[in-house]
Amino acid sequence: MHEAGQYERYAGGSPEAERVLVERLVRDLMRVQIKVNKRSGAVDIARAFHAKAALGVENARLTIRDDLPADLRTGFVRPGAEYPVTVRLSNASAARQPDHAPDLRGVALRIRTGPDEAHDLLMTSFPVSHARNAHEFVAFAKAMAGADSTPRKALALFVKLPLAVGRPTARRMRRNVRAGSRQTVRSLALATYWSRGAVLWGDAGPVRYQLRPAPDAPSAPPPSRTDPDHLRHELAQRLRTADVVFELCVQRYVDSGRTPIEDGAAEWKVADTPVIPVATLVVPRQDLDAAPARATASRVERLAFNPWNTTEDFRPLGNLNRARKAAYEASSALRLGHRFVTEEPRRNAVLGVPLRAGFGALNRFVPWHRLPTRLGLLNLVALRQTLRRENLIDTEIHEAPPKAQPVPPPVEEQLRVERSYDGSYNDLSAPKMGAVGATFGRNLAPVYRPDLFDSPNPVTVSRQLLHRDAFLPARSLNILAAAWIQFQVHDWVNHQRYPTGTRSVEVPLPPGMTWRNSPGGPPENVMRFAENKGVQPPGGVAPPALFGNIASHWWDGSEVYGGDQQTAMSLREPDGGAALRLEDGHLPIGPDGIPLTGFRESWWLGLSAMHTVFAREHNVICEALRREYPHLDQNRVYHTARLIVSALIAKIHTVEWTPAILATETIDISLKTNWQGPPKNWLTELGLWLFEAHSLTGIPKTLPDHHAAPYSLTEDFVTVYRMHPLIPDDFEIVDHRFGHRIDTLGFNAVQGAAAEPLMRKTGLANALYSLGIAHPGAITLHNFPRALQAFERDGEVIDLSVVDLVRARRRGVPRYNDFRAGLHKPRIKRFEELTTEPETLSRLKDVYRTVDDIDTMVGLFAENPPEGFGFSDTAFRIFIVMASRRLQSDRFLTVDFRPEVYTPLGMDWIERNGMTSLLLRHCPELASFLPRSANAFAPWRPVEPARNNSGPGSL
């Protein structure tokens, strides 16, 4: 039995190292594709190579020869077997140039050998490649991109190419290209085509294959020098009268010297390895100009051929072939509009270097938030560029080496205009990106130290530095801001846990302390809670530092709609109705007393209010869509309403919630710029034109861009969004009509199964009003809710502050000093640099040996935030890169944020609405209480109760 690996040598020394190199080359190749397209002036993006087709048919037949040698009989290659074949014949150039221009020719075959099995064979009309490997191949493509005239070709071949690969290699490449492209081709039916790279042929080992014309093929007239499409016309004429017949042949591997695998520029000479016919390919007689044939040719043009569309028994071999899998996938995705390339203007690339260096130096003395507004905005641009380059770490488990695959199925049409239930197919070129189960990424390299999991004791940290002795309010916000961020986090992130009692984390308690780990359970000397499930990479990296997200990573409203089809369908009206199920305007209650909605954990009155409002909003949008577009079916109405609600949520978070919690002019301008573009100010626009032109429009008017890594939310993002201090320990429920107190309740009386009865008894308007007039807690030390330090969940009693500390440690999030240094802030050297408050300073020194031991969450809470900020500047650095990333990566918030997908009504709905208008649509009686000059997350005006008013019945 032959194994592919025994013949191959990987660039960089390993399959993973080669994969990283190939990914860089693939990005370069896509830029070449864009450049060629621009030079040609074509509306659509052509194939990276073999752009101009002369033939596309689906009715060819491949018949395996009866005299096939015994050792070549493997897999589908069985004597007498016959298979349908799709054939594409083409010129090799990336530009659609005239047929008489010097060029190679190519053939692509898709042999369908079963319902779920096909084999793509790709060949070119010269026995060797101009490139030995993928690096040389891409270097040549980059040098030749746009070389559409003789002077430019000379510049590319004799200046650019030698600079990229060296003079000897460039000379050999020029020689091969000249030899291949100067052949006179009278007919594509008379050309011979070679694979140039090797493939595995089952137990027979490696082979190269070729396709040659049948010996009795009719001759062709001399090629036309005036007809730019003479090769197609010649084929059409030939097929009108007869079949076109080829022989499929192979050459066997001999040894690494005479038949090298890794060198695509080396010929396998017939003297060393004779050509063996294995099958006959027949393209039947037909009229290529008839309407059915034209329709077939159009379908073939949409196909994405790839030599890796095969089985492992016929796996491609060698560096060039291994690179072709990723290259062909990316090129096809770009051509079909499934993947995108955002080109950075040259002036931005050049000027960005001194910009980042200059602000990096300036920020050692003056932080960005102390600069004048316009300079601060430019500082944030520079900082975001740095963070995008250095703080997006790919944690996806990639395929290395590449593996054979079935032909990928076409994208289902509804996935182009609907968010999937689980977040898949947002990126059509990488369907699993950001979907349920995708791993959390990283902004900082993980620091996985099991020896420090319990040091210092997290219970001690919690009791000394986090425990709330007295409520510290955030006076610029209302409690709706606290409810909102939990509502959002439930859409974004959720680590999977082992079932309670099956696999637990055990935290030793300080001497003399005990803990009841379950309601009514016995006192124990450890604190116990369910462990997160890790994702084990192939090859068994132990212990795992990767974790999957059981929510989708996208901003898709999954907290309202659910993360799978079964949940989503169960929340809709019966019989496939578009609306969400409500009972007299309230969420239906499940058997456990928690409302039925997309995400039901950690339920309390604030979440109930948010979910109720947005479920009602969905239903109102459905009614509007049905009135405006009566031809839409219920499923399309549902999915369009979901798109609108999700985008409205993203807009509210971007231009309302965030400026409320980060209340500075610089942040307000920058976030509105993210959504709708910069203010009409020539100086601001000039700065962006010079340094980051893509910010001249709002992100929704740009193309998707994942920057340095596939899109995902990150473990570091999860850490900075630990904002539990926002939650008060007690709540006043107030009647909005008269201002009198209905009740004062502790957190346990407004959470879990108690929340929904309270909501129905109080009413949505009173609930919103009660939360709107009250302050949340400040995100600082000594302000963690007491109720959450003895919180019942899934049969456990947990201290959520301890859980937060332990989770960050066990997930490898760097400690605070490493965290801030990794985000390009200076390290602190003394505890006094973090706080000067005497009691806090004393406790920090008691709990931690050095400043390097401070937990990330503790440091973030202790840090003095910039003026107007509700959380620290260090946490904000994660926000800088991830806030725009959540928009920029999402197809439905960029390239498909358009009326054709959302409907004109939907686009107008998102444009005209925000949190205030949404609340007033469902509770118009609250109009007089919402802020006039601020958004709905600022404190509302409380009604002054009448002096003699004792309640609703008083006169």
TrEMBL record:
<keyword id="KW-0925">Oxylipin biosynthesis</keyword>
<dbReference type="InterPro" id="IPR037120">
    <property type="entry name" value="Haem_peroxidase_sf_animal"/>
</dbReference>
<keyword id="KW-0275">Fatty acid biosynthesis</keyword>
<dbReference type="GO" id="GO:0020037">
    <property type="term" value="F:heme binding"/>
</dbReference>
<dbReference type="GO" id="GO:0006979">
    <property type="term" value="P:response to oxidative stress"/>
</dbReference>
<keyword id="KW-0223">Dioxygenase</keyword>
<keyword id="KW-0560">Oxidoreductase</keyword>
<keyword id="KW-0443">Lipid metabolism</keyword>
<keyword id="KW-0276">Fatty acid metabolism</keyword>
<dbReference type="InterPro" id="IPR034815">
    <property type="entry name" value="A_dioxygenase"/>
</dbReference>
<dbReference type="InterPro" id="IPR020835">
    <property type="entry name" value="Catalase_sf"/>
</dbReference>
<keyword id="KW-0611">Plant defense</keyword>
<keyword id="KW-0479">Metal-binding</keyword>
<dbReference type="GO" id="GO:0006633">
    <property type="term" value="P:fatty acid biosynthetic process"/>
</dbReference>
<dbReference type="GO" id="GO:0004096">
    <property type="term" value="F:catalase activity"/>
</dbReference>
<dbReference type="GO" id="GO:0031408">
    <property type="term" value="P:oxylipin biosynthetic process"/>
</dbReference>
<dbReference type="InterPro" id="IPR010255">
    <property type="entry name" value="Haem_peroxidase_sf"/>
</dbReference>
<dbReference type="InterPro" id="IPR019791">
    <property type="entry name" value="Haem_peroxidase_animal"/>
</dbReference>
<keyword id="KW-0575">Peroxidase</keyword>
<keyword id="KW-0444">Lipid biosynthesis</keyword>
<keyword id="KW-0349">Heme</keyword>
<dbReference type="GO" id="GO:0006952">
    <property type="term" value="P:defense response"/>
</dbReference>
<dbReference type="InterPro" id="IPR050783">
    <property type="entry name" value="Oxylipin_biosynth_metab"/>
</dbReference>
<dbReference type="GO" id="GO:0046872">
    <property type="term" value="F:metal ion binding"/>
</dbReference>
<keyword id="KW-0408">Iron</keyword>
<protein>
    <submittedName>
        <fullName>Catalase</fullName>
        <ecNumber>1.11.1.6</ecNumber>
    </submittedName>
</protein>
<dbReference type="GO" id="GO:0016702">
    <property type="term" value="F:oxidoreductase activity, acting on single donors with incorporation of molecular oxygen, incorporation of two atoms of oxygen"/>
</dbReference>
<dbReference type="Pfam" id="PF03098">
    <property type="entry name" value="An_peroxidase"/>
</dbReference>
